[in-house]
Amino acid sequence: MASLLYFEAFILPGLLSSAPQLVNQQSELYNFKAFMRIRVIGGIVFSMGFIAWGIVWLASGKVPVWSSICMMIGAPLFSLVFLSGNLRLLGVLLYSAGLLGVGLKILSVY
C-alpha cells in the first residue's frame, strides 16, 4: 500500500504534467466503483493500523514522540484517497519523517 501511495503522491503528478496521455484518470478502471471502494477501504485500514501503532509507540516510550505523531498524522493524510493532492503529499512527508525517526532509533540501539 505504501509504495502505491508513494507512486500516487510523487510519480503520478509528474507523469500527468509531462505526459498526460500515459495516465488517463478518466479511464474505466479509475471510474470503476469497486476499484474506488477497495482503495478507500484499504486506506482506512492502513490509517487505523498506523494510528494504533503510533499509540503503542507513544505508550512504550521507546520511539521518539515526534516520530509517533508524524506517523499517526501522516498515514491517514496520504492513505485516504479522497483527500486533495497537497494534503496527501503532506501526509507522505510526515509519514516518511515518522519512518525515519523509527529507523534512526533502531540504528542507535544497534
Structure commentary:
- The protein is an all-alpha fold and 110 residues long.
- It has one domain (2-109).
- 81% of the residues lie in helices and 0% in strands.
- It is built from 5 helices and no strands.
- It has helices at 2-18, 28-31, 33-60, 65-79, 85-109.
- Helix 3 packs antiparallel against helix 4 (65-79).
- The relative contact order is 0.14.
Keywords:
5 helices; mainly alpha; elongated; 110 residues; 0% strand
**H/E topology pattern:** HHHHH
Summed over residues and divided by their number, the pLDDT gives a mean of 81
Shape: elongated
Q: What's the β-strand tally? A: 0
Helix content: over 70%
Number of domains: 1
* Sheet having the most strands: none
Distance between the termini: 28 Å
Radius of gyration: 16 Å
pLDDT < 50 runs, ≥5 residues: none
What is the tally of helical segments?
5
**Beta-strand level of the residues, as a percent range?**
under 5%
- The helix-and-strand class reads mainly alpha
Brief write-up:
With 110 residues, this protein is mainly α. It has five helices and no strands.
List the topology elements.
Elements: H1 2-18, H2 28-31, H3 33-60, H4 65-79, H5 85-109
